[in-house]
Amino acid sequence: MVVFSHISSSFNQPDTSDVALRVGTQVFYCHKFILANSSEVFKVMMYSSCWPESKMSEIILREHERHCKQFEKFLAYFYKSEVTVCQKCVDSLIFLADKYLVGNLKNLCVTYMAEQVRHMSIQRTLEWFKTARFLCLEDLSQKCLEIICWNSYEVVESPDWKNLDKELVLSMLKNSDLVIQGEYTLFLALLNWLTERTLAHASELLPFIRFSQMKVYELQAVKNSILCQDKELKSLIKKLVSKAYKLRALLSHQSELNLSFGKDYYKPRNYLDFSVDDFKLRENIRCGITSTVQAISSAIPSETCNAEWQLTYRKFNNANTGSLRFVCQNSEAGEGFAQAVILIKESLRVINVIKSDVTTYAPQAHLALDVSLPEGNLRENLTILIKFIPK
């Protein structure tokens, strides 16, 4: 510990250093051995004869202005082997750790970001997603994308939406766990994005809009949209909308016609239009009282929720977990699958999604869905969704 303390206090001491690093307007006095021992990049820079810097007593490092502000904290990690990571500094630290091949620091930053991303603003989450993708951090980028998709209803309303790149927009459109008011809302958001950017991407992105999940008047509005002024796009939209009407016309006859509607195009996302949550309902659930709510009754989008569902929370013995049971007696659905989805919110942002198993249903059959739900989540801001999924 005495040696460690001595090394720690040696950072940025002109009298004992053997190399100075000039970063922007700042100069840091360091030790070649410590830099080389912590970073493969500095090791080559300090000791390789191929690098002119190895013979210099002062080395100029060119960094982005925002990274310059965190460079002292970055270098201090080499001497202290510890660092306090925060929202303000983590972006710069992870870029610097990646650039100079400081693996332990990079892993610390990744762990911090993965733990904190669900509590960040949408703007910060989008920034972290770009960082993770740029640095090829697949697990972190997927975690960020998950949060972005869970809060897409907020993303599409934010000023950042029109500036998102095509790859991120495409990833969102492909995602079945997208939380959005309705599919028509997503279409309008895409239309807004295309208008701000370029209609050249329309033919690539439009097929990922699930027109089958729109109501009839919404489909008519799509056919009257500005996109249909383009001959090729009008033809594409006509084809996509016709598939939506195919679901409406043939779903009830799919068994006798041996039809399949199992592709993503026909599957619902997590639509807030179908939520059955209210404050009284949450209070009843907490108290173990069975509540009756109106929800959807079919895989075909409808303007009304006309099925009665009974919701009851049953606590497991000697456990802090229970099961939220959804029971429907009068479903109008044909054959397919059903699923209950619970959105856990914090300050109006979705931070977790809990799903029931996908359950097979048949005409006029008793339908029950169970979701395992920790008791603590009942104190959270919950939104409850029920989805019918055609097969």
Rg over C-alpha atoms, rounded to the nearest angstrom: 28 Å
Overall SS class: alpha+beta
Largest sheet: 4 strands, antiparallel
Query: What is the total tally of β strands?
Result: 13
Mean pLDDT: 88
Supply the number of structural domains: 3
- What is the count of DSSP helices, taking H or I runs of 4+ residues? 17
Widest β-sheet, arrangement of strands? 6-7-8-12
Pfam family, one: BACK
Protein name: BTB domain-containing protein
Domain BTB: 17-87
InterPro entries: BACK, BTB-POZ/Galectin-3-binding, BTB/POZ_dom, SKP1/BTB/POZ_sf
Q: Would you summarize the structure shown here?
A:
This protein has 391 residues and is of the alpha+beta class.
Outline the structure in words:
41% of the residues lie in helices and 20% in strands. With 391 residues, it is α+β, with helices and mostly antiparallel strands. The protein has a 4-stranded antiparallel sheet, with helices on one face. Strands 9, 10, 11 and 13 form a 4-stranded antiparallel sheet that branches. It has a 3-stranded mixed sheet with strand order 2-1-3. Helix 2 runs antiparallel to helix 3 (40-47), helix 6 (87-99) packs antiparallel against helix 7 (103-116) and helix 8 packs antiparallel against helix 9. The longest helix has 20 residues, at 231-250. The chain starts with a helix and ends with a strand.
